[in-house]
Design a protein that fits this description.
Blueprint (H helix, E strand, L loop, with lengths): L1 E3 L13 H17 L11 E11 L8 E11 L3 E10 L2 E14 L2 E2 L4 H8 L6
Antiparallel strand pairs: 1-3, 2-5, 3-4, 4-5, 5-6
Keywords: Hydrolase
Family: Belongs to the 4-hydroxybenzoyl-CoA thioesterase family.
GO molecular function, one term: hydrolase activity
Length: 126
């Protein structure tokens, strides 16, 4: 998913505020669902972030076009781990491993087959 960095994403020096990289990644994950006619949250269940490991390499700046790539690196019955990178041209700016747990009524639950099938396509970083 591609984003332009807007003024609201930056600090006074025009550099992307660190927390906004997490927002860029969240938007990209949500868009992977929406673009396939699904939602990351429904009455049946939803994903929550279980853990994050993030690395900031280089800053994005006001006006930059950044790309978020999402690749699944581990899948289990009730959770998935994704590797998400934010890049500008050929430069990696930010990398994050995020573990998401699937819950129904606030309790861990098996990921539904339809969602699990979609997530499986992320193995190659589609």
């Amino acid at each position: 998913m591609e984003f332009r960095v807007y003024y609201e994403d930056t600090d006074a020096a025009g550099i992307v505020y660190y927390a906004n990289y997490l927002k860029f990644c969240e938007r990209a994950r949500s868009e992977l669902f929406f673009s396939n006619g699904l939602s990351p949250q429904s009455e049946e269940g939803y994903f929550v972030v279980k853990s994050i490991e993030a690395s900031y390499e280089k800053p994005a700046k006001l006006g930059d076009i950044v790309v978020v790539n999402t690749r699944m690196i581990e899948k289990k019955a009730v959770s998935i781990t994704l590797l998400q990178t934010v890049s500008r041209d050929s430069d990696t700016l930010f990398t994050m491993r995020v573990r998401l747990a699937y819950l129904i009524h606030d309790k861990p639950a098996r990921i539904p087959v339809q969602i699990y099938s979609l997530i499986s396509s992320w193995e190659s970083g589609e």
